[in-house]
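Here is my example:
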Amino acid sequence: MTGNTFFSLEKLPGGRSGGATQAETRVYNERLIVSLVRRHEQLSKAELTRLTGLAPQTITTLVNRAASDGLLTRRAPLRGRLGQPSVPYALNPDAAFAFGLKVDHRSADVALVNFVGDVLGFERLEMDHPHPEAVMEFARAAITRIRRKHRSIPTARIAGLGIASPVHQWQWADDPPAASGPLAAWREIDIRAELDQAFEWPVFLFNDAVVSASAELMFHRDIGRADFLYAYIGYHIGGALVLDHHLFPGRNKLAGALGETPMPGTDAKGEPTLTQEISLRALAAKSGGDASRIWTQNESWDGIPGVAAWIDRVADGLAYAARSAVALLDIDNLVIDGAIPPAIRKEIARGTRRRLGRAFVNRPEPLSVIEGTFGHLGPVIGGASIPLLVKYSNDKELLFKE
C-alpha cells in the first residue's frame, strides 16, 4: 500500500450528518451549535437562535443536551444590559481530546490536544530520512507514555489520531541513495492503516499543510475569518483553503496546494516553482555550512547566509499566489505560517503585505495578510484537530466529499 488512504468509516458510527433524516438533522444541528460556540468563543441561547434561525425551543433543547454531555459549559450571566441577564455558553476544554502525529523529513512529533487546542502532552523524535517503521514505533510508544501521564482522561473522550504528512514521503529525497533507502519504504507502507489497527479510535491522514490550516480554523481564537488562503513554509511550500468557515480540501485533499505554483517573473520554459525557490529546502541549498541551523528550530536565524534575499523571494512568491487566489476565489485573507522563527514570519508577512498594498485598492474589502500562530507545531496540532473536526463540527466537506 502507498500510504494514500485518508480515513476509514468503520470507526465512525453515526458520522454522517447531512440532515437527510430526522436523526441526522439533530446531529447536524448539535454540531452546528458547537461549531458556532467555537467560532465566537461564547454565545447565549438567544444569540444562537439569531445565528441559526432555529426555534428558541429547539436551541434550548440542543444547548441543554450539549451541556449535559459535557461539550458546553455555562458561564456567569452577563449583567448590565436591558432585560434579563444573558447566560453565555462556551466550550468545555475537557469535553474531548485527540492525538496528532506529524511526520516530516527530519522528525516526528506526537501531541495530545484538548477540545480548545491546548497541548497537554508532547514528544519529538529527530531523525534523518525517517523510516515508516521507526515512526510508527515512536507514535505507539509516545501515545502510551502520554496516556499514562493523563490517566484521568477516559478512552471514550479521545476522538482519534490525526496524521499530518506530505503523503508522498519518498519525494523528500534530494539524492538517489536516500530515494532508494529508507524513504523508498514509504511506497510500500500505509501508515494510516497500520496505526488504525493499533488503536480503538479512528485514525486519519491528511496533507500536513491542510491540517495546519485546520489548526488555525479551529484553535486560533482571534482569526475570525470566513475565508482564507493558508500558506505553510516548510521543507516544501504547502497551502490550503478555508471557505465560509469550512476547511475545503478538494477532491484529492490538496486544494490550495501552493508548491507547484510557478514563481513570478521567470521564463515560461522550465520555470521554477515556489517549492524550488522559496521553501526551506531552497534556503538550505543556498546556506552552505549553516544549513543545519534551519532544521534545528532555533528562535533566531541571525548570521545564516542568504536569509534576507530569501525572505524577499518568499514575499514575491506568496504575493503572486495570493493575487491568483483572490482572482479565482474572491477571498479576503492570506495566513502565513511555517517551520520558521516568529521574527522571520513577521518579515515575510510584512514584505508580502507591502507587495499587495496597491494590488487591491479597488476591492470592496482589502486583502489582509495575517501571521499564523502555531509555527513548528502547526502540523501536529492540526493533525489532532482533524478527529475533533470530524466528530464535533458540521464540516461535512472534509470527510464526506467522496
